[in-house]
Design a protein that fits this description.
By secondary structure, the chain is mainly α. 72% of the residues lie in helices and 0% in strands.
């Protein structure tokens, strides 16, 4: 495995529960040990990265030597890919509340654009340092950043939900849940609905179906604009289909259709995305023939369709084609999905292909190789 560069290059590893516990204590010895374990580095190589001797690193890790200088801590943070705020070091610009909020808004917009364009890993690298900065300000009593912090936490959770494999998706749900906690406390209805619907979707992906349906039902009830209602409804339909809740699924799909003319097209809600959700839900609730019939009426993706949705749609089509017995067409859809999933680093979509391609051994083998490459990429 390649060694980390001066910028760390592994920021999503700092979002895990274990890493967050270590960072919360601001314990430099624990941080250094964790970083070495993560990268399989001996003390000698960590010392070379930071510019310290092996014996010095050993003393810092055992606590017999402490580092308190702001310059030294800032240097260590930069080398490990950490924002300096995790060591309690603030930037001069943090004194200007307006500048902090404007900067945060810009980061959120750019991260969302990057995620929708299929560059979720880059979005993680932008969002997590912003969250560390905002959390440091909130801890100092600056409540004016809480709304922005809630949105950033939700955004990070959603973005992690793209780049992490299924067995680690609980981390994504944990971050969206942290956003819900702030939104509930602020008692802002649109923000609360926004946080709930994304938290519900990440819970669905993590396999917590009952909790997902509950959160998404609340999000729908809190939504007032057609756009917010549509966003909640399509995710509710998706979760209900996955959970096998046919009645809730049918009601949500019907409401989604009724909103197509009033809600407006977004990357999340459109005729294309609603078709994919309905296709998958029909298959999951045992209505294979209806799914086959619906597959014949597939709408064009449109300009708003994100790369992730195109991958998701191809997998759903492949699953239905497998059930119909059309292995050739199913294989084409699955291979197309695999190319997109690898390009945009979507390991859990590759895992969906592996599950769905039991009767397609060549596709299954290709998917397993693709997943191995993505896992190595995540580890590195």
């Amino acid at each position: 495995m390649g060694r980390p560069n001066a910028h760390g290059g592994i920021r999503w590893h700092w979002t895990t529960p274990r890493a967050q516990d270590i960072l919360r204590r601001r314990s430099l010895p624990e941080i250094l040990v964790f970083y070495r374990q993560l990268n399989q580095l001996p003390q000698e190589e960590l010392g070379a990265l930071l510019g310290y001797s092996t014996s010095y690193i050993s003393r810092v890790e055992t606590g017999s030597r402490t580092i308190t200088g702001i310059g030294a801590l800032r240097h260590i943070a930069e080398c490990l890919g950490l924002p300096p705020h995790v060591f309690g070091i603030t930037d001069e610009a943090d004194g200007d509340h307006r500048a902090v909020i404007q900067f945060g808004e810009s980061v959120l917009r750019l991260a969302d654009i990057a995620r929708q364009a299929g560059h979720a890993a880059a979005a993680v690298d932008e969002l997590w340092p912003l969250i560390a900065r905002l959390e440091a300000r909130a801890a100092d009593g600056h409540t004016d950043v809480l709304r922005l912090l809630a949105r950033a936490r939700v955004g990070l959770g959603v973005t992690l939900g793209h780049v992490l494999p299924e067995e680690r998706l609980a981390t994504a749900a944990r971050w969206t849940g942290k956003g819900v906690a702030i939104a509930r406390r602020l008692d802002e209805r649109p923000l609360h609905a926004h946080a709930l619907r994304h938290h519900g979707n990440e819970l669905r992906k993590a396999g917590l179906h009952h909790a997902a349906l509950e959160r998404l039902g609340r999000a729908r009830a809190l939504s007032r604009t057609p756009g917010d209602r549509a966003a909640a409804v399509i995710l509710l339909a998706r979760a209900a289909g996955t959970a096998g809740a046919a009645k809730v699924f049918d009601e949500a799909v019907a409401e989604g259709r009724s909103l197509l003319d009033t809600a407006g097209v977004t990357p999340l809600f459109s005729e294309f995305t609603l078709h994919e959700v309905e296709l998958r839900g029909l298959a999951a609730t045992g209505r294979t023939q209806q799914a086959v019939d619906l597959l014949e009426r597939s709408p064009a993706p449109g300009l708003q369709a994100s790369p992730q949705w195109r991958v998701i749609s191809a997998i759903a089509a492949g699953e239905v084609l497998v059930r119909r017995g059309d292995r050739g067409a199913a294989g084409e859809q699955m291979r197309s999905a695999l190319r997109g999933a690898e390009l945009h680093r979507l390991p859990h979509q590759v895992q969906r292909v592996i599950r769905a391609s039991g009767s397609l051994p060549d596709v299954r083998e290709q998917a397993q190789h693709t997943l191995a490459r993505l896992r190595a990429d995540i580890a590195a």
